[in-house]
């Protein structure tokens, strides 16, 4: 019995012949809307109570809901084609399903990494070129000395939403860009501290940390899809969760839930690697002569962000991708002692 009429837009997008795709979307969107509704009160509380209590939140209620509406619109535009593609690949993948799924996700991630800074991020934040001056000259000179192909240097208006600070870089091959949060510039005492933070980030690039992390994620993704192919046709798996049929999306979600314990172990391992990378990047910045401003900048940013400075080693090793401040400063000091 037909209980609903397929909207013309969905029928036009996915085609009337692919009934499996149309079968999944009536389940997918109500579930997504339910998650959105249940998550909204916690997001509001986190932003306007917890963050405001500690002086971090800077956004208005209107800005919060405007961002949320933009996010929903993006999900509506981007989500259905991705879901439809995954379902089609699962249906027609055959014995090479894991490779096809991995290849699709690889291409998707590269496309999103390319488009996000240019099309998506500007929808939520304003990016302006860093004004000419001493700070810009120092960053450009540092990038040039390391042969970093810096094309553009931006400041993002992070202060319109939060007082948290950050800096990051993006771009492929010879087209690199660096983005500074305006809060980072405001919180650091001088230009040297900002440049020291950039030296740390450039250390990640110079030491190929980003590439290593990307490769590790791709390997894990391929292994995960390989595991999914082993159980996707298991009737016992679906029936144990109360499903008599075997929809593709349901199978993917069930598999993700069954491997959660393994994912925790993998996450712990990735955190250990990430923490090692942070120590290496600190050491790289120190070798460039930024030990003193890096120390000062790390302390200042830690204070401004109210981050835990000396947590339990086991707790931080499991939960934190970055080492606590005390450990990072101790590592820099240890390097000084070895030099002496």
Automatic annotation (TrEMBL):
Residue ranges of every copy of the Peptidase M48 domain listed in the record: 129-334
Annotated CAAX prenyl protease 1 N-terminal domain residues: 35-126
PANTHER family associated with the record: CAAX PRENYL PROTEASE 1
Cofactor(s) named in the record: Zn(2+)
Entry binding sites for Zn(2+): 200, 204, 278
MF terms (GO), sorted A to Z: metal ion binding; metalloendopeptidase activity
Family under the similarity heading: Belongs to the peptidase M48A family.
Domain of life according to the entry: Eukaryota
Active site: 201, 282 (proton donor)
Swiss-Prot/TrEMBL GO biological process terms: CAAX-box protein processing
Annotated localization: Endoplasmic reticulum membrane
Catalytic activity, EC: 3.4.24.84
Cofactor info, note text: Binds 1 zinc ion per subunit.
Protein name: CAAX prenyl protease
